[in-house]
Amino acid sequence: MGFALSDMQLTSPAFGQGDAIPARHTGEGDDVSPELSWTRAPKGARSFAVICHDPDAPLLSSGGTYGFVHWVLYNIPASAIGLAEGTADFTAGRNDFGKSGYGGPMPPPGHGQHRYYFWVLALDRETQLKPGLTLWELLAQIEPMVIGMNRLVGTYRRG
Prior knowledge:
By secondary structure, this protein is mainly β. About 5% of the residues lie in helices and about 35% in strands. The termini are far apart. About 35% of the residues are buried.
């Protein structure tokens, strides 16, 4: 399938599509991940991965990657239909803060509003990937397995 949107839907009770992410889920608040849920996973989904990426961050690496990665979570079983707020379940990758787990929105001071793309990816097989993968390492490993994906986009402007 590659990386194309599918019929799967990703939602959160914390914010809607294009809405502001509450401060509770940011680096200026409690810095806990929002509750997420997904529906319409494709038939054949055997596991999931969730990521959060800020493409508006003014960063470009020497490897050609861009933006800022806030969350990388994987090895989520097919039985899951969402994630609890502040979850510590499943396998965490490394975010661009250099830490494991979720690191909430925190655009540079005076940089204006940023968009935060929360993605859920459905995979056609179970995974047992090692902890600590970066987003780019994860994507390199799972790309052939992706059978569905979609996103929820929230916004945040630093106070």
